[in-house]
Design brief:
alpha/beta; Rossmann fold; transferase; SAM-dependent_MTases_sf; two-stranded antiparallel sheet; single chain; ubiquinone; about 210 residues; Methyltransf_25; methyltransferase activity; globular
């Protein structure tokens, strides 16, 4: 599938640039830190679409000694994640094909990974996530809204990547249908390299609350 293969090729080729840009990107780091405050030490955490391990790195730096597992489809990103977070367990897998036993994790984070999934794939993944999450445990979800789906160049890659801009209303409905309650929802603007503004959406949710 071209949208997937071209996107992964771009991530593989520019993983170091991506890592350098977002490793300490304050707007995103701050959101992760806020979420970490809600978690208890020693929790089992799943980082989906982990990239070079930027989210997992913040989890590690918190000192809460989480058990971290990360998954990404880019082999080069996974290699970087293993270097950035030596204590984590990272594997190169397709999020559309993952499978875990029910209630395997205390927290699951999806930081800008559903932006590469179409509506059906996104809904299927969130349904799985709800199953894998323990009762009354936490979900972190971020994505973009407000633009047209399609291939785009980015600030870290001249090669195009395919992005989906899911509507907040649709995402909220899917979360509700899967017994995931939103505890906190925030939006903020992200300045693109062409001067336009993309709306980033951040959701903290919990299962069964």
């Amino acid at each position: 599938m071209e949208r997937i293969s071209k996107t992964i090729t771009a991530y593989d080729k520019h993983c170091d640039v991506y890592n350098d840009k977002f490793k300490e990107f304050e707007p995103y780091v701050q959101k992760i830190k806020e979420f970490i405050e809600l978690l208890e030490p020693g929790m089992k955490v799943l980082d989906l679409g982990c990239g070079p391990g930027n989210v997992s790195r913040q989890l590690m730096l918190s000192g809460k000694e989480f058990s971290i597992e990360g998954i990404d489809l880019s082999e080069e990103m996974v290699k970087l994640a293993r270097k950035n977070v030596p204590s984590g367990k990272f594997s190169c897998r397709d999020l559309r094909d993952i499978s875990f036993p029910a209630e395997s994790f205390d927290a699951i984070l999806l930081s800008f990974c559903i932006v590469h999934l179409d509506g059906t794939e996104m809904a299927d993944l969130l349904k799985k996530v709800a199953k894998y999450l323990k009762q009354e445990r936490r979900l972190y979800l971020s994505f973009m809204e407000g633009k047209k789906d399609g291939f785009e160049k980015t600030s870290f890659s001249e090669e195009e990547l395919f992005f989906y801009y899911h509507s907040l209303e649709k995402v909220q409905d899917i979360l509700k249908d899967n017994h995931l309650s939103i505890n906190k929802l925030t939006k903020q603007g992200y300045l693109e390299s062409d001067g336009s503004i993309t709306t980033d959406v951040f959701i903290f949710a919990s299962k069964g609350n």
